[in-house]
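Subject: sequence -> structure tokens, single chain

Hey, anyone have a minute? Need the predicted structure for the following. Not urgent.
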Amino acid sequence: MTENLVFFKASNNQAILRKFQSRLNEIQSKSNFESARNTHMNNIINSMLATPDEWDFKCGITIKWIGNTFIDLISDKNLMLTTEHLDDMFSMCFRFLFELYLSTKTELITELNNARNFAVENTNEFSATAKVQVEYAIREMPISMLKDLLASESIGSIKDFNNLHKIIKDKQDAWETELKNKEIRVEAIKTSLATYESGFNFVGLFQGFDDLSKQKELEKTNLLFWIKVAGIAIVTPLISEIIYLYFHVSNFEQIKIVLGISLLPTASLIAILVYFFRIILQNYKSTKSQLLQIELRKTLCRFIQHYADYSSKLKEKDKESLAKFESIIFSGIVSDDEKLPSTFDGIEQLGSLIKSLRA
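Reply:
Had a minute. Here:
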């Protein structure tokens, strides 16, 4: 049994078998031997036509050896179906049948088993050529089949099994070594990543503080600008008053009159500007204080992971070991508004100034 050929299943070969079978059925037998021979040959052909896949699969060697010769012989319409020719045809059918028998684990069906027994028991009744074929099939064909099988690629693969097993084992060892090396590399990467954990673990919290810090920096810059503007605005009325008196008033009496008229508005304006200057200055100081608190939180976020790791054992003994840290990190960012001037501070100062002038 070799590779799975397509011989008996081929449509043209099946047509040839059917035509030969029709010719075989028309023959008038002259003896019981010829009648039994033709009947058994007809049963073999019936099986070939009924189960071509099985015959193709299990008779590969005989198909390779005499398949074409068998088809050429039975397809020759001009060939006279003499006793010798029919004996030759039966002997070929018997060779196919005997390989089928050798390749089948179980017993053949009754018709095929009877055909095999008929050939074995009546070997001497066949013509000389057919007798040689039958005896070859019974005695030497199993050995020839075995030799062909041993020389096949399948048996060669079995013979090379040990070499193949060694190759596979070497491959497996190489894969295991490579896997172990990769595991070592993964562990090294894991250890390396652990060293960066503190840098990224609280990256969201740090980023939030950083954004808030940028906003406060901008706010501080704006407040500093308005402090400068307010400072200039405070001294501007006085300077303007002096310049006006210098260029437009020629004697002291006129100066007294002008000062009496403009002093109250000027003083009121300066008092209001001083009030706003104090508010802006207080906000500026508050913003600087908030920036310091934010920078403290950003600094603490950089080492919180290691701090928590190192203090874990201490926290088992004292649950409040991180309370100070947590109170700073998660507390609100407050401004010092205790000295922030109220809304009525400027009004009270203006009232005091008016009272002093009237007195």
